[in-house]
Amino acid sequence: MRILAAMSGGVDSAVAAARAVDAGHDVVGVHLALSRAGGTLRTGSRGCCTIEDSLDARRAADLLGIPFYVWDFSERFRDDVIDDFIAEYQAGRTPNPCMRCNEKIKFAALLERAVELGFDAVCTGHYATLIDGESGLELHRASDAAKDQSYVLGVLTAEQLAHTYFPLGATPSKAVVRAEAAARGLTVAQKPDSHDICFIPDGDTRGWLAEKVGTATGDIVDRTGAVVGSHEGAHAFTVGQRRGLALGVPAADGKPRFVLEVRPVSNTVVVGPKEALAISEISGARYSWTGAPPADDEWDCHVQIRAHAEPVPATARRDAASGALVVTPEVALDGVAPGQTAVLYVGTRVLGQFTIDRTVSAVPAGV
Known about the structure:
Layout: E1 2-6, H1 11-22, E2 26-33, H2 51-64, E3 68-72, H3 74-90, H4 97-116, E4 121-123, E5 128-133, E6 136-141, H5 158-161, E7 164-165, H6 174-184, H7 205-213, E8 218-221, E9 227-231, E10 258-263, E11 268-272, E12 278-284, E13 286-289, E14 298-304, E15 312-318, E16 325-329, E17 333-334, E18 341-346, E19 349-355, E20 358-361
Parallel strand pairs: 1-2, 1-4, 2-3, 4-7, 8-11
Antiparallel strand pairs: 5-6, 8-9, 10-11, 12-16, 12-17, 12-20, 13-19, 14-15, 14-18, 15-16, 18-19
Helix pairs in contact: 1-2, 1-6, 3-4
C-alpha cells in the first residue's frame, strides 16, 4: 500500500512509520504545521506540533529513508479546532480539542488530501486496533489498556477507518515502543509525551480564554438561586471545578462547593455540593457511528466520558421524539459537562460517539 505517515515528531508516530516501512509499504512522511507562530518551541513536555517537533520528525524520516514534507494546516486548524474551542466555552460547554483535531484535521483534512494524492491510508501512532468483523471493519481498544487511545478516535466513520493504519495497536506497552525506537537509532526514543492543549502550551486555559473573549463580572449562585460569590467570566469555569471559585458565602454545612452548571447567556455559574455532580443520564443529538450502527433502538454498552476514565456499563437508546441518543449508566457518572464527548463501546469495540448536550443530576435540586 501507499502509506502517508503522519509524523508529529514524537516517538509513537516515528515507530509507527518505521513499522510501515518494515511491512513493505511505500511510505511518505508528513508533519502538520498547525500554528503560524514560527518561533514557537516546545517547553518541557507541553504542547506539540512546534518547530522542534517538525525537526524531530524530519530526522526520523531521514533515518528511515522516506520522503518527508511539512503541510500547512494552520488555517484549517484555527477554524475547526481553535475557533470551535472558544465558541464552545462561550456557549457554556466543555470541548475536547483533541477529538476535534482527530475529526476535522487528521482524519478529515489530512485523509482527504492523502486519498486525492493516491495514498491508500494514513498511518498514525495512535494505540488502537482495527479488526475485520462480521459487519465490516471495526475499531477496538489497544492491547495496552494504559495507553489505549480508542476514545479519541471514536469520531472516525466507517469510510475513514477503511483508510487508516495503526501499527502500534497490538504493542504491549509504551516501554516496548521506546526500546524499539532506541534500537532503531531514533533520537526521539526518550522524548517526553506531550500534555495539555497544544495551542495553550503553558497550560493556563483560563488566562488564554480571557485574552480571546475578555472578562465580564457575573454572579455565582447556589442551586436555590441565591448569590454566593462573583466571577470575572463564566467561560473560565467548567462542571466539576472547585479551584478558582471566589465564594463570599460559605455553605450551610461547611462543605466545599463545586461548579454544577455554566449559564453563558446570564453569565452565571451555579455551584453546589459534590454529591450533585452525580449524573444519572446523558444525551446528545450530534452523534456518529464508528463502523456499522446498532441494529436495535436500545442496546447494552459501556460509556466512557473522558480519555482516561473508566468505562461504565450502561443502556443506550435512540429517542424517537428528539432523535438524540440517550444513555443511562448503571452507576452515576461524575462531573459530566455539556460539550464533552461520550464514546460507546460493546466489549472492546468502539460503537460510536456523541457530544453531550444534556445531563440529568442524580440528586434533585431540593436535596
